[in-house]
Write a structure and sequence with these properties.
The structure holds two protein chains of two kinds. Chain A is an alpha/beta fold. Chain A has four helices and seven strands, in the order E-E-E-H-E-E-H-E-H-E-H. Chain A has one domain (about 1-110): STAS domain (Transcription Regulator spoIIAA), CATH 3.30.750.24. Chain A has helices at about 25-35, 55-70, 80-90, 100-110, and strands at about 1-5, 10-15, 20, 40-45, 50-55, 75, 95-100. Chain B has one domain (about 5-125): PPM-type phosphatase domain (Phosphatase 2c, domain 1). Classes of the chains: A alpha/beta, B alpha+beta.
Chain lengths: ~110, ~170
Amino acid sequence: MLSTENIQDVLIVRVNERRLDASKAPSFKEQIGRLIEDGVSRSVLDLRDVEFVDSSGLGVIVSCLKRLGPAGNLAIAGANAPVRRLFTLTRMDRVFSMHDTPEAAVANMIA
Amino acid sequence: MAPWGFQIDVAGHGAAAALVSVAGQHTLSQAILTRQQGVLLEDIVAEINRQWPPELPYFTTILGEIDPVRPFARIVQAGHPSPLLIRADRSVHFLGESGFPIGVLQQVSYDSIEFDFDAGDRLLIYSDGVIETENPVGEFYSEDRLRALVTEHADGPTPKILQCSRHL
């Protein structure tokens, strides 16, 4: 479900799912939770393969941000138009920095 | 008291979401019924959000009130899709663009949207289930398509509009 790589000490988590919805949210939460417990503080969630996020999926993404703590930083990359719309509708675009690519997100994060 | 109403949608499915839905409806109803004079609708929503237990799923809502005398209406959008205002002249408009859901971040504020709401005007409030419906080839029923469909039937009676929205 998730694949990871490091770019300049930032953990890129790519979600290999077409839909991030109520049926996928529990395993997504568990798997990404395990990554965060490994001491990650700066991460980019790469959503390029994701066509659809529902409220459950969004809830997990928000919970990740909370688990990273006050010093943590979580950015979003590659969100398509409907996913971006969900972020703007719920004002999560003011909470997460949104970028077209993981590289752009990392560049912004370490700038 | 002016007529008021709301629609809520809890994140997730199943028994937990259903129970939270009941809790959310109760909380909103109580907040309106015990509202002190002069307290703004957006401040009621902000207070509910501040007090919403962080361990519960979040929910989205449109909370609205109507002043039939002036006549105008006011809504607060909290993460819920933008409602459609169907004017008596058959024009159709989206109201609002965004707002934080209830129970995601505690220290946030909300805005209210005021609009003329005269005889013959209607407000269509719906959950994201409508615009996230996928057709057999995997296309989502977008806001644009909902608006086009409602515009097409805007001269019809309300049950007709609801009926055609059910057969997306």
